[in-house]
Amino acid sequence: MRFSTLDDWLSWQEGLHPSEIDLGLARVHEVLCRLGRDKPAHPVVTVAGTNGKGSSVTLLAAIYRAAGYRVGAFTSPHLLRYNERIRIDGEEVADELLCQTFERIDQARGEISLTYFEFGALAAIDCFAAAEVDVAILEVGLGGRLDAVNIIDADVALITSIGVDHEAWLGSDRETIGREKAGIMRAGRPVVCGDPDPPASIASAADALGARLYARGVDFDIQHQQNQWRWRAGSRCRDALPMPALRGRYQLQNAAAVLMVVELLARQLPVSQAHLREGLGTARLAGRFQVLPGAIPLILDVAHNPQASEALAGNLRAWPTPGETHAVVAMMADKNMAEIFSALIPEVDHWHLTGIDTPRAAPPEQLEETLTALDQHQLTIHASVAQAIERVRAGARAHDRIVVFGSFYTVAEAMAAAYTPSGPVASESIAGDGVSNIRVEG
């Protein structure tokens, strides 16, 4: 075996390929075929979108696990441990299994160079096949059409909300980005779009390819019923559903599309009403409006684009506090900071700015300059996320709260600071990818 520890494997993978991102399927598909994993024996759901991918994967996995199925779930990036990316029956795969899987991939690839993310996608597919899962749920890392996850033909493709992010790779408008996300569609197979106002490019791509599109508000929809909700698709109806355990008003949008996926796979993977209710009520996902309770509550949200910051602002409004809201923020330099901050300005009383340990990070002075131009003057610069949280807590008053956002890195540093020697600080409700240096999505 090339390496005996997971850390060594990951460090080596980071420098194996000439570039961190190399969108394209030829190299990774060739390795998949050499592994003999190009035709999965189980149904596959591929999930793409700007926001809501992780939540949708989590909801689907929770529903199918509640129904007794063996579920493989691949997500990215991770927060604290690489193993978070590949889960079987809700459990992170062990270091030993990952090392063995990486060795098989390394042997199969020969002279083919792979990126860090491509190694991970192949590892997930290989692990799921070896574990003989009943269903695999794969989250796209970047875009869709050229993402490594797209080497597998999805039985059902799920496209969540479409916003503007990663313009350098995907384009600068929703129509162009929608076409990239639509690349996960397959001819003759269903695709679900959960965005209530999708770009026209989604339907155009489905028509051109011959994929059957199921669109929110056309083929399926939801209706609120006090503290419950109803889902309907044609004559098919699911009544008296519990609100998703994942926090955030936008989670109903994710859940509606997830139920359409469940309906489309019902012949292969039937799910009862009781199991559906159980899955909706037990789904958990770190870093999506996750609340760590205490004298001064800590809210963790990986929001890192304008659409996500608007959702975060809406959640803060829906959960008001009589005290002040302190925002601890660090983000990547290539983000649209003005738009991200603008959505949150009405909800934030004091901004606490810092950097994160990655070459792509914006210096806190750049954040300060953007906020000053937006007429924000309650600004404090800190040396780190952990220091910012510590100092805010030291000076906070009753009913104040802290919201940490801006990237997966930012939330990961906050989570690491919240851990104690005996384990993690309890979370009131987990909802909505040593920390790796490759987290493109943040």
Report on the structure:
This protein has 442 residues and is an alpha/beta fold. Helices cover 37% and strands 16% of the residues. The relative contact order is 0.13.
List the helices and strands and how they pair.
Blueprint: H1 6-16, H2 26-35, E1 44-48, H3 53-66, E2 71-74, E3 86-88, E4 91-92, H4 95-109, H5 116-130, E5 135-139, E6 156-159, H6 167-170, H7 174-181, E7 190-193, H8 200-209, E8 212-215, E9 221-225, E10 228-233, E11 236-242, H9 251-264, H10 273-282, E12 290-292, E13 298-300, H11 306-318, E14 325-329, H12 337-344, E15 350-353, H13 364-373, E16 379-381, H14 385-395, E17 401-405, H15 408-418
Parallel strand pairs: 1-5, 1-6, 2-5, 6-7, 7-8, 13-17, 14-15, 14-17, 15-16
Antiparallel strand pairs: 2-3, 3-4, 9-10, 10-11, 12-13
Helix pairs in contact: 2-4, 2-5, 3-9, 3-10, 4-5, 7-8, 11-12
